[in-house]
Every structure is written in structure tokens, then in C-alpha cells.
Amino acid sequence: MHYGSKGWYVEQLKQAGVRTYEERKIERYKKHVLAKLLEKTK
Questions:
Q1: pTM for the whole thing?
Q2: Residue whose C-alpha is closest to residue 32's, from 12, 3, 9, 1
Q3: Own/partner pairs, 33-38, CB within 8 angstroms, 24+ separation
Q4: Distance between CA atoms of 41 and 11, rounded to whole angstroms?
Q5: Strands (DSSP E) along the chain, which ranges?
Q6: Domain boundaries, the chain
Q7: For residue range 4-26, what is the model confidence (pLDDT) as tens digits?
Q8: By three-state DSSP, how is residue 8 classified?
């Protein structure tokens, strides 16, 4: 997994316990949305 890729963000969010966002799985979102979500969770 490359640092900063969409898969990397999904993996980091799952490790933080985030599986869904606004009742949708995080895999459905674009990378920039996942980056902002990860920033909020830290």
C-alpha cells in the first residue's frame, strides 16, 4: 500500500475504528474526502 493512496487512507481509518461515514462505507468516498475524515479523527 502506497502512502497517501486511497487504500492507505481506508486502512488508516479502519485502524482508527471508522467503518462508515454518513451511513455509507468509507470505500465509497474519494481520496480527498477520506483525507479530511482522517484528519478529523486524529
A1: 0.90
A2: 9
A3: 34/6, 34/9, 34/10, 35/9, 37/13, 38/9, 38/12, 38/13
A4: 13
A5: 20-21, 24-25
A6: 6-41
A7: 999 999 999 999 999 999 999 99
A8: helix
